[in-house]
Amino acid sequence: MEAKDLLSDGYGHALETVEVVIKGLSLEDLNWQPRPDSNSIGWLVWHMAREQDASISLLMRQEQLWIRDVRHKEFGRPADPKDYGTGQTPEQLASFRSPDGETILKYYRAVIELSQKYILSLTAADLDQVTKFKWMQPPPTVGSWLMKIMDDCIQHAGQAGYVRGLRQGMGWQKY
Question: Is residue 158 a part of any domain in this protein?
Fold first, then answer.
């Protein structure tokens, strides 16, 4: 198995986790925050999809799906490529209003599809290429950046599952 296959598989597992976490949730559940300065399930999944969309689109040198496919309107948010939640205040977290679970999943599935298409097109030499990310010193390789994005998504998917457990207690996850 090649590294790109492992990366693709890992991204797919993040989606599978999110699909389980979101299944059957109401808007109230998606927007519930354990504390006023905590993330809701809807925000966590929106944020992971946004960061992944922004990062993969940057690597591909193309416009983000968020803007190109006008996904921002479905979320009632601006067409701002930097609107992905990093550095938000507790007030901004509390003001986030999630769309329904299917809308969130539709966007995240599109981001995963784009990510996997990109990842599976890469060669080993492509993965070893150093990015031109001037804000990071030293700049990461494409492969290490893809790992960082995947790690971030897996963590946020797990956090969303934890918040659902806080909201609904034991037994929500059926295998």
Answer: yes
Q: Is residue 173 included in any domain, yes or no? A: no
Alpha-carbon distance of 40 to 28, in angstroms, equals 10
Instruction: Please write the tens of the pLDDT for every residue from 71-119.
Output: 999 999 999 999 988 888 888 888 899 999 999 999 999 999 999 999 9
Cα 138 to Cα 132: distance, rounded to the nearest angstrom:
10
Structure tokens at 24: 């059957």
Angle of helix 142-168 relative to helix 41-60, nearest 10 degrees?
A: 170
Number of domains in the chain: 1
> Residue 122 sits in a domain of what CATH number?
1.20.120.450
Round to whole Å and give the CA distance between 53 and 165.
Answer: 27
- The one-character DSSP state at 60 is H
Q: What is the pLDDT of residues 14-48, one digit of tens each?
A: 999 999 999 999 999 999 999 988 999 999 999 99
CA-atom Rg of the chain in angstroms: 16
pTM for the full model?
0.94
Residue with tokens 């198995």: 1
